[in-house]
Amino acid sequence: MTLRANYFDLASKAMQILMNQENYLRAQFSVSETVTTQIWELVKLRVSQINQCAFCIDMHSKDALSQGETLERILGLSAWRDMPLYSETELAALDWAEYLTAGKPADDESYQKVLQALGEQAVVDLTIAINAINSWNRIAKTFKPEVGSYKP
What we know:
The chain is mostly helical. The chain has a single domain (16-143), classed as Up-down Bundle (AhpD-like). It contains eight helices and no strands. It has helices spanning 7-10, 12-31, 37-50, 54-66, 71-76, 88-101, 108-118, 120-143. Helix 3 (37-50) packs across helix 8. Pfam families: CMD (PF02627). One of its GO terms (molecular function) is peroxiredoxin activity.
């Protein structure tokens, strides 16, 4: 494979902005009673699957496992709607993640559905998180860091 630009070195200030966003989300989800860091990791993994980002799938699978997620739930994530492994909150978060990743406009019905399931703060934070992982996926797919090199 041809080596590509080192985006962390060439755009360090921009990467720091994205890392600061990750720090904000980590802080929010670590104290949330609704969308937890475990749910956030599932969302990152599912969005990465949709976007077919190999580096991010590797990363978030490893992170989820290191945080106590089960292999069964990670493997079932690609068919989460038909798997009896996820809570109502997880289902709402995954549904919103797929909806926004598909580029659909946030119509009133969809917004009200996720709002009722998660509450305002969680919807705002989750929407930012979904935007973030979609951005990370596009960066990783463009600059192709070595798949398998990530260590939690």
